[in-house]
Amino acid sequence: xxxxxxxxxxxxxxxxxxxxxxxxxxxxxxxxxxxxxxxxxxxxxxxxxxxxxxxxxxxxxxxxxxxxxxxxxxxxxxxxxxxxxxxxxxxxxxxxxxxxxxxxxxxxxxxxxxxxxxxxxxxxxxxxxxxxxxxxxxxxxxxxxxxxxxxxxxxxxxxxxxxxxxxxxxxxxxxxxxxxxxxxxxxxxxxxxxxxxxxxxxxxxxxxxxxxxxxxxxxxxxxxxxxxxxxxxxxxxxxxxxxxxxxxxxxxxxxxxxxxxxxxxxxxxxxxxxxxxxxxxxxxxxxxxxxxxxxxxxxxxxxxxxxxxxxxxxxxxxxxxxxxxxxxxxxxxxxxxxxxxxxxxxxxxxxxxxxxxxxxxxxxxxxxxxxx
Length: 372
Prior knowledge:
Layout: E1 3-8, H1 11-27, E2 32-37, E3 46-51, H2 60-65, H3 67-84, E4 88-92, H4 95-104, E5 110-113, H5 125-132, E6 135-138, H6 143-149, E7 154-156, H7 161-166, H8 174-178, E8 185-190, H9 195-212, E9 219-224, H10 228-241, E10 247-248, H11 252-258, E11 261-265, H12 268-276, E12 280-284, H13 288-297, H14 305-310, E13 317-319, H15 324-336, H16 338-355, H17 360-371
Parallel strand pairs: 1-2, 1-4, 2-3, 4-5, 5-6, 6-7, 8-9, 8-11, 9-10, 11-12, 12-13
């Protein structure tokens, strides 16, 4: 019986891991899957051999401050994987941890699914990938040329975000569950899935809500929570700000579907909003040291995956120092100006074509089964 190990550390990685695991089990019910990740993966048939820390190791300063914890976990993960002796190890996203672990697992066959964004920064990581991985499964079509140039076997099946959207079933009792008024439009706030993102970005969203309240009397604001733990962080931020906006703690796609406008932290969520076809603004803010480091490292003119794929400024981006008057104008435009709304929606159609049709995760699972 074949055995696969899956390594995923963040909420977005878990979303793709559960889709992949479901299809792997569907194709081969006898396949044994062990993993390092969240306990939630167990209900999809994964035996969790080491639970990934819920807080994670995010950002340059975070890793520095938690270095001892990071190294201890890295060693435990290495020992647990080696003791399992899997036929294949699949690494999903999370390059800060995954690349370090991969280097310690010599002798094991490894595939990187959702590899590091070497096209944006730290291109030198491609050398590590070439040395330690048998192949790479990319999620953006333009990535393949980079790996082919370095003679790294790479495969593109589309972006698995399309499967996340396809698997979402809209609930008719949304209004009741959310405690919202049907007669008012919704602006959905999506402040990210990491504690550091929420602590930095949600205060910006709350200030935007205060700025818009007097001029948009037919609008209500809702905050999306990625997990129970992040809901607690949202509560802390709201308490500090003296606000009590409702929090939606179920599928984020449902809230997107009911929103007239979405304000999002930069990340995969941007693609989900685009594929559902809702107007959006994108934000990112971090502590000053991380910001300086990233400014030095990032080579791209955009931060949102939507703009990166589209290769033009389709959705407005606001980074670090917020211009609230400009943000307010953009929000009003994307709520009421049909021309501006249609401009984004037309671009989203192109994004949808690039990301591919559903069943991306199934195709990846079929590829993996053939290569175990």
